[in-house]
Amino acid sequence: MAEPKENLQMEKIVSLCKRRGFVFQSSEIYGGLNGFWDYGPLGAELKRNVKELWWHAMTRQRDDVAGLEATIVMSPKIWEASGHVATFSDPMCDCLLTKKRFRADQIEPQSGIVYHYEKAIDLSSFDDFISEFPESVRPAVLEDLKRFWSDSTIDVQTEIDRIIRLHLGQDQSPTAVVNSFRHASVPTEFESYSVLLPVGKPPESARKIAVQFYQQKGFQKPILIGERTERIENSTRYNPENGSLLTEPRPFNLMFKTYVGPTATEADVAYLRPETAQAIFAQFKNVLETSRQKVPFGIAQVGKAFRNEVTPRNFTFRSREFEQMELEFFIKPDEVIEAIHGSVATVSETGHPGEPQPNWGWQAWHQYWVEERVRFYEGIGLSRETLGFHIQTKEELAHYARACTDILFKFPFSKKDAAGNVTGDELEGIAARSDFDLSQHQRFSGKPMGVFDDELRAAWAKLPKEKSDVLWKRYYDNRKNYLTKSAKPDETPEQISQQATEDANGLAKGQYIPHVIEPSAGVDRLILALIANAYTETTKTDDKGKSETIYTMKFHPRVAPIKAGVLPLLKNKPELVKKAMQVRELLRPWMNVFYDEGGSIGKRYARQDEAGTPFCVTIDFDTLGEKPELLDTVTIRYRDDGKQERMKISELLDFLLSKVR
Ligand code: GAP
After folding, report:
1. How many CB atoms within 10 Å of residue 6?
2. 110 phi, psi to nearest 5 deg
3. Which of 80, 152, 363, 414 matches a 20 to 30 Å C-alpha distance to 175?
4. For residue 307, which atom of ligand 1 is closest to its CA?
5. 391: left (phi over 0), alpha (psi -120 to 50) or beta
């Protein structure tokens, strides 16, 4: 029952990533560190491009988003408030045989025959007893002993006497023999054990695994007792690789712990952040006050996050150290919108709702951000066909969340649904998180996280009483619901009602706690998606019938690590080299270019194709004026179709910039 091998496509991608310097295993020379990856020269450029494009799209190109760069280690109180200390865990179980760790919710259900063993006896502890018998009868003694061990109703004394009389033929039990039996203690720990085998596999396979298990527990000569079989369907209690029973699932907190300061006591415990989002909430007031933003507005951050994942897997997809690009977009609660604008805009659940409007509630903003993010992906080469969506069900949503849409990418390892369509795996989640986060930080820090809105205060004063009563009650109910679910053990229902009343009364004064829409993307997953999407293999056969596989990384020019290769036709012609270097210097301040003069021009094109360089600029004798009308022109060669065209050097920069920006 071996785990299916990672698919061939992924193996090829991983291999190209190493060969071309996109991604290396971290600490490779020491055997690597599971769940940690380094980006090589091309990978580092690709990553930088992606982060810059995100930053540009999310902050600089907008008036309503400000940036933040917070520390990785923060007060541990932040993680108490966010709920990470108490609940940021995955169910984990271990193989009882190999100790390999699994995420319980990721084990593929399996069916087959379970071989249960009631216990095992360590025969070595009965060596003395058995050696009292002649060699020829020892197997029979063993069988009798096994029967005796499997049946707790058999009386020890009677049975031992019987065995001795039967096999030694003596009238009386010799004391030494009886004592040697009594001396032998039956180990009781890890008594029962079971193994799951696919139907049709011989029982010996299960016995072999069970014997190995008991040997690991210190039994020198395990004898399996009480074998019983059972047919089971869709069980996740067994190791899919060897059939061994797993431990019961138990929660495993994913945060990496560290100590701040030299004493390293429990009071010094801190955590490496498992997400960048919480710093944004913790700094919400500072950013609001210094950026001159008003709700609705967002705070964006790109940075490292750390999760001690139980089973890192699928290359960089699930790593222990990774980067996130997160936006917390703060919006007015729907009650506030209704008080100011009379009603909340209705939106259809699909399609872009257009330019943001003042009367948008959380649904319109959520829809807007889902579509904005899809547009971003399309703009860097991931077409809609390569993406998928997962709208979280009520059961999947966190208790405070109103909606969450995951944008998926169809990775080579993504599974198919019942209809045979590839579903995809999560690139990014866009969650409508209500006012939970700011409320939590307000409660845990004691610092107000609400905002004051003059427009609300003025509008509230003019509301008919029936309307303000309805809005007040809705806001009150939402606050009470939150306060009840997040209550500390010593908080009484009266205190909660009082707090909810105060919060709802705040509306009339123009006060509220903003709600938030959170588009949260993983940089590394996006890099992997871009690499998988770009990877193209073609086979070329020459005149002599010899075939060769050609690899081309068809990155969108915006993300491509190298934007242009600058190639003098010949390296031993100083005039060509000099001109090529001038072209390189022309382009270099604006984009990453690669100067290459080694090997035939065909080989150099192929190297750039493999690196994903969308354009190659060749400087030849015509550039130098061999044909006077072509003086100071170059050849541009396009990666994806190999076509070439002539262009004036004076037009080159503008042309390339129009493609790579
Ligand atoms: N603040 C919300 C948050 O962190 P998440 O779904 O846990 O939500 C957001 O993470 C994104 O971060 C994911 O969609 C994914 O792209 C990325 N991510 C999460 N865990 C990751 C891991 N172990 N390795 C790589 N990327 C990860």
Report:
1. 15
2. -130, 155
3. 152
4. 23
5. beta
Q: Which atom of ligand 1 is nearest to the CA of 523?
A: 16
Residue 3 DSSP symbol: P
Q: CB atoms < 10 A from the CB of 60, how many?
A: 11
Helix (H) or strand (E) holding 470: helix 465-485
Show the tokens assigned to 101: 């760790």
Mutate to test the pocket of ligand 1, among 301, 407, 437, 525 (most ligand atoms within 8 A of CB): 525
For 127, the token pair is 């060596």
Distance in angstroms (rounded) separating the CA atoms of residues 192 and 118: 5
Q: Which residues line ligand 1 (CB under 6 A)?
A: 275, 277, 307, 309, 318-319, 322, 324, 326, 426-429, 518, 520-522, 524-525
Question: Could you tell me the CA-to-CA distances from 148 to 141, 163, 182 in Å, in that order?
Answer: 10, 10, 14
Question: d(Cα 449, Cα 469) in Å, to the nearest integer?
Answer: 24
Helices within 99-188 (DSSP H only):
127-131, 138-150, 156-168, 175-183
Tokens of 591: 């984009």
pLDDT of residue 159: 76
Supply φ then ψ for residue 305, to 5 degrees: -135, 155
pLDDT attached to residue 115: 97
Q: Name, in order, each residue with C-beta under 8 angstroms of 462's C-beta and a sequence gap of 6 or more.
A: none
**Encoded amino acid at 551, one letter:** Y
pLDDT band at 372; cut points 50, 70, 90: very high
Lowest mean pLDDT among 71-75, 330-334, 397-401: 397-401
H and E: helices and strands count for the chain: 21, 26
Name the strand (E) or helix (H) holding 323: strand 321-331
Ordered alpha helix ranges (H), 446-537? 454-462, 465-485, 493-505, 523-534
Closest atom of ligand 1 to 520 CA is 9
Q: What is the mean pLDDT of residues 422-426?
A: 96
Q: Which residue has a Cα nearest atom 10 of ligand 1?
A: 520
Six-digit token pair at 17?
């990533």
Q: Would you give the DSSP letter of residue 591?
A: S
- Around Cβ 85, how many Cβ atoms within 10 Å? 17
DSSP code for 514 = P
Instruction: Give the distance (Å) from ligand 1 centre to CA of residue 103.
Output: 16
**CA–CA distance, 257 with 502 (Å, rounded to integer):** 38
Strands (E), 523-595: 535-541, 547-553, 564-568, 593-595
Cα angle for residues 563, 566, 572 (degrees, 5° grid): 165
Nearest CA to ligand 1 atom 8: 520
Amino acid in position 256: F
**DSSP3 helix / strand / coil % (the chain, rounded to 5):** 40, 25, 35
Give CA–CA dist 377/380, Å, rounded: 5
- Residue 599: both structure tokens together: 């090997």
Q: Which residues pair with 37 in a beta bridge?
A: 25
Mean pLDDT calculated for residue range 244-249: 96
Residues 6+ apart with CB under 8 A from 229: 113, 114, 115, 116, 203
HEC states along 599-653?
A: CCHHHHHHHHHHHCCCEEEEECCCCCCCCHHHCCEEEEEECCCCCEEEEEHHHHH
